[in-house]
Design goal:
Belongs to the universal ribosomal protein uL22 family. By secondary structure, the chain is an alpha+beta fold. It is built from three helices and three strands. The chain has a single domain, classed as Ribosomal protein L22/L17 (Ribosomal Protein L22, Chain A), CATH 3.90.470. It is elongated, with a radius of gyration of 18 Å.
Length: about 130
């Protein structure tokens, strides 16, 4: 019984992890995502470990999840993995109000983001 298994959307040499509804603006999250895009996973983990950005800890956790998915679910070699894609999407925006002068209000937008990290196994060309 149960549902039929879905077709795999990624190629056989890729794995991904998604972090949803993170309380940070997409612009700020994309700065950290751009820093690891295209790097080997060992280098990307080192960069995230020593980054001063607050969100780097959560991005590192998502990258580690993608690595674990590649290793455990898809039998890929961790030493050959590269961050193929790291992209950010908009999520909901909480709207808040703050009082301003002369009885007016000022809008405050508190944006949320989604982060998707795709790792790919690349064979070393000797």
């Amino acid at each position: 019984m149960g549902k039929a298994a879905r077709e795999r959307t990624l190629p056989e040499n890729e794995a991904k992890a998604v972090m949803r509804n993170v309380r940070i603006s997409p612009q700020k999250l994309n700065l950290v995502a751009a820093a690891i895009r295209g790097k080997k996973v060992a280098s990307a983990l080192a960069d995230l470990t020593f980054s001063k950005k607050r969100i780097a800890k959560d991005v590192k956790k998502t990258l580690e999840s993608a690595i674990a998915n590649a290793e455990n679910n898809h039998d890929l070699d961790v030493d050959d993995l590269v961050v193929a894609e790291a992209y950010v999407g908009k999520a909901l925006v909480m709207k808040r109000w703050t009082p301003r002068a002369r009885g007016r209000v000022g809008r405050i937008h508190k944006p949320f983001s989604h982060l998707t990290i795709v790792v790919r196994q690349v064979e070393e060309s000797a």
